[in-house]
């Protein structure tokens, strides 16, 4: 089995109910942070980490997502005719080479573990990355790149980890680690999906970046349901911890935005807007004015 990670799975078959009614006809992953869809941030992060094969697990109603990475001949011709080189550069960045992206379908949204399992034939006997596009991570060095570098030293399996407040912990997969560990890569003793706050083994939550061994896919063969009646990736990783004791949590450097939630998406929109030189001043002025008006009204 090779150790280099070149394949990444993007599970995008969920229904995105927290963004209804928009997600009735628009895939959540096409929702736009400033001017780029969420999926573009995930693809860019994977490319910068050295991923060359991209596997999307899609479902009915996601065709906008599939089309997004194709060439758009009319648009391209128009930009060329008008000599819009800046826009052509942006456009070219979104066009993936023929064959670079493979699509597999998840016929029913049975859970994240099931979605990843749907990619098993394309993964084969190789370690692979998983990126959840609704976790957007702003970082100097992309999160997956940080993990792949750490993984080159540890091998095994790796889960991105972040401390979250106690009242939020029961929304996450939670890691059980040695409290004394200060290394960014921490050996994980156990993992549990969406525990009650009082049962959570720590305040370290799994975030949507993983590097997994093919054994984790085999652990999903049994199709066992877990928290919320879904087939959970966390449970397959927990099994891997029991079997191999070779799973690490990785405390990444960077700011993560939960763009699967409305509040997280709005926060990311402001943060990414303020990070843009062409938008910063206008947006900042607007935020100050809004705050002043709110204060005056109180
Ligand atoms: P979420 O838990 O955010 O679910 O999935 P969701 O359906 O996307 O959104 P809500 O909760 O209804 O608003 C996390 C990731 O796992 C994928 C989703 O597409 C998302 O990227 N997923 C989830 C699947 O691909 N298939 C599933 O059966 C479940």
Structure explained in plain terms:
The structure is a single chain. By secondary structure, this protein is an alpha/beta fold. 36% of the residues lie in helices and 22% in strands. The protein has one domain: Spore Coat Polysaccharide Biosynthesis Protein SpsA, Chain A (Alpha-Beta Complex). The protein has a nine-stranded mixed sheet. It is globular and about 60 Å long. Bound molecules: uridine 5'-triphosphate (UTP). The site of uridine 5'-triphosphate has 21 residues, from helix 5.
Strand order, biggest sheet? 5-4-1-6-11-8-12-10-9
Biggest sheet descriptor:
9 strands, mixed
Tally the beta strands: 13
Shape: globular
Percent of residues in helices comes to 25-40%
How do the helices and strands follow one another from N- to C-terminus? EEEHEHHHEHHEEHEEEEHHEEHH
**What is the average per-residue confidence, as pLDDT, rounded to a whole number?**
94
Low-confidence stretches: none
Bound molecules: uridine 5'-triphosphate
- Annotated CATH topology: Spore Coat Polysaccharide Biosynthesis Protein SpsA, Chain A
Name of the CATH homologous superfamily: Spore Coat Polysaccharide Biosynthesis Protein SpsA, Chain A
Q: What is the first-to-last residue Cα distance? A: 63 Å
Decide which structural class fits the backbone. alpha/beta
CATH A-level architecture:
Alpha-Beta Complex
Q: Rg from C-alpha positions?
A: 20 Å
**How much strand content do the residues show?**
15-25%
Instruction: Supply the number of structural domains.
Output: 1
- The CATH class is Alpha Beta
**Tally of helical runs:** 11
């Amino acid at each position: 089995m090779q150790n280099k990670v070149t394949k990444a799975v993007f599970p995008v078959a969920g229904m995105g109910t927290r963004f209804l009614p928009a997600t009735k006809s628009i895939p959540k992953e096409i929702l736009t942070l400033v001017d780029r869809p969420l999926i573009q941030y995930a693809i860019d992060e994977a490319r910068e980490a050295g991923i060359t094969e991209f596997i999307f697990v899609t479902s009915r109603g996601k065709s906008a997502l599939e089309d997004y990475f194709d060439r758009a001949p009319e648009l391209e011709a128009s930009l060329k005719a008008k000599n819009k080189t800046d826009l052509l550069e942006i456009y070219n960045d979104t066009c993936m080479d023929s064959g670079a992206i493979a699509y597999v379908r998840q016929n029913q949204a049975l859970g994240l573990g099931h979605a990843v399992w749907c990619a098993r034939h394309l993964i084969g006997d190789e370690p692979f990355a998983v990126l959840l596009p609704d976790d957007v991570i702003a970082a100097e060095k992309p999160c997956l790149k940080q993990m792949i570098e750490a993984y080159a030293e540890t091998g095994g399996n790796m889960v991105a980890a972040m401390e979250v407040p106690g009242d939020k912990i029961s929304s996450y997969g939670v890691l059980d680690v040695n409290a004394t560990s200060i290394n960014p890569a921490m050996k994980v003793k156990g993992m549990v999906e969406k525990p009650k706050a009082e049962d959570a083994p720590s305040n370290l939550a799994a975030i949507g970046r993983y590097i997994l061994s093919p054994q984790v896919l085999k652990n999903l063969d049994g199709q066992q349901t877990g928290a919320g009646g879904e087939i959970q990736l966390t449970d397959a990783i927990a099994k891997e911890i029991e079997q191999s004791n070779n799973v690490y949590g990785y405390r990444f450097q960077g700011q993560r935005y939960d763009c699967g939630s409305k509040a997280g998406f709005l926060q990311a929109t402001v943060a990414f807007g303020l990070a843009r030189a062409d938008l910063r001043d206008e947006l900042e002025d607007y935020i100050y004015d809004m705050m002043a008006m709110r204060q005056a009204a109180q």
